[in-house]
Prior knowledge:
Layout: H1 2-8, H2 10-29, H3 32-54, H4 57-61, H5 70-86, H6 91-118, H7 124-145, E1 165-167, E2 182-184, E3 187-190, H8 192-207, H9 211-221, H10 223-228, H11 233-259, E4 261-263, H12 269-281, H13 291-316, H14 321-339
Antiparallel strand pairs: 1-4, 2-3
Amino acid sequence: MIVKVIKNNLFKIIVFCFICLLFIIEKEKLNGLEIISSIGNILKRFEMNILLVLSMIPMIRSGCGLNFGISIGIVAGILGSVISLEFNLINEFGIIFAFFIAIIFAIFFGLFYGFLLSKIDNMIMIISIYAGYLMISFMNIMWSCLPFKNPISVLSFRGRGLKSIISLENYWSGILDNFLNLKIKKISILNGSILVFIFFAILINLFFKTKLGLTLDSVGLNKDFAKKNGVDIKKIKIISVIISSVLASIGIIIYEQNFGFIQLYESPKSFTFSSIASILIGGANIKKANIKNAIFGTFLFQSIIVLVSNVLNNILKSDISEIIRTIISSGLILYAIMSKESIN
């Protein structure tokens, strides 16, 4: 029994031991306050990214595989954020309005994205990559053309076109992080962002117990069997894509209010590999995923990024965190796709 558990979770055990080793190395090189700061940074990055990772689950479980087109949902979230700023909405009203607009665009974009993927039986993940890149390129043009007028958002020297980075200060920066902010030794362990994640985690868990959720699962497990039982495969795939896109749009707004800035243009690309790598490192594969995979994977991935960056930056005296993030995420995705089995 114990041997079977170890065998099934070998990869996660290795990663966890590696993280413990990094903590020991960091403790030798840094003082106690910096260790606490690292733990706080890990938890902060966890709450910033967890909903984006959670958005991977519906498409994986419907048989669409890893959502390399997550940037389509992210773009919807960015649109909601920018429109919220355009109306000068602040605090709770600003972020709620951003959520509302983002969900509308996510449903609209997800419908077309899902329709595209439903027409393809093979190479869905490859097509999703190009669909995501196409959306980013199209929106790069739109960010320069859309008639936004808010001085905070618009390029000052041109008078039109949006900045690549827009500050949320004086709008709704940190609005969720400051809600019910429970801290232990200056480390936030419970706040509005975590509560939003818990809400959607429960919602997803309940959804997969409904008739529609069970049907979606059946399509992912055995498409031919589901089809013989009268299930509309295309419809189910479109629904899963829409759900994933909506979750991604909400997730990026959570990220933005935590980060304090809206990032436009090429920035959605940076969330694709990290989100996929996080759910893979948590034990998911291209056919199976659950909430535990998302939680555990996000925590492990962000821990590795923070601790490896701290240790190597201290040794090499230079910031190579972005290089480390790219190597880890790309390596995990390559391994998962080549094996086509559990990451374990």
